[in-house]
């Protein structure tokens, strides 16, 4: 039991009859709840049954949440009480932060904050709160999800100023940690969420974003995040690598550096570009890159690269080429030779 055991009836609750949890007469496994938690939840069930939304029922929800911050029903009933009583919701956000304590990834707490903002019709200082959480944990999924909901719900990205503010915030995080995949994801979200179009960025905007991603790729060629970011522009919207030759040029240049030569992302990007070009010669280069990935750079995914190699070889045969694969000992040399021939 707790050091300070709650005594039933609670003072000020003498007219309320607690409702125990119904575990049946012969439960298979009876959960050993703490005494105070049992008392608090028994009173919560009583208030739910009566529908009383008073300050004392609100106090009971707080007591329950002190023991179990993930108690979904307690959060739900707490909101009923708050809204019925017309309580100060700004103050409630401080309560939610206090209850969350050392558990910043609690689903129920984040949903509670969302529900309060939605009820108020005002984001208040929620973005500042998210900034605080992200500063402590830059990859907190719940914080990023909450931020994106706020931006959409309150249309903060409808103006160029709003988008610039968010992009600046993302840039600051990437300068601290260029491997922050959550920040890269958020940048994509900001660029595509509210542009006043039906999901199409201008070529100028795309060029700017490709240059941004390539800048980070050159700094750390083995960091997968910027490569995935720039590839996404070619996997959505029907864009082609041939229309943005700077991507291939940057990858070819990186391939000749010490760091780039060891990066599977450089070679997989080039292989993808060569596949898209679709000529017999470019498919030969793709095959060489896939084999180098399979045998040297990314052996963990050797079976995947083998499947890509076989697909490229089949396409090359269909074009009248020899197909097959590059001899294993010469794979790296073949990639280098192919790259030299394709350099811009």
Q: Counting H and I runs of at least 4 residues, what is the number of helices?
A: 17
Beta content comes to: under 5%
Helical amount: 55-70%
Quaternary structure type: single chain
Shape: elongated
Regions with pLDDT < 50 over 5+ consecutive residues? 326-330, 337-344
Through-space gap between termini: 75 Å
Q: Can you characterise this structure?
A:
The chain has 344 residues and is mainly alpha-helical. Among the domains are: 1-87, Alpha Horseshoe (Serine Threonine Protein Phosphatase 5, Tetratricopeptide repeat); 103-193. The chain has helices at 35-50, 55-67, 72-85, 89-100, 107-120, 126-136, 141-153, 160-176, 181-193, 203-219, 224-235, 245-255, 258-261, 264-277, 280-297, 302-318, 331-342. Helix 2 packs antiparallel against helix 3 and helix 15 (280-297) runs antiparallel to helix 16 (302-318). The longest helix has 18 residues, at 280-297. The termini are far apart. Mean pLDDT is 89; it is low at 326-330 and 337-344.
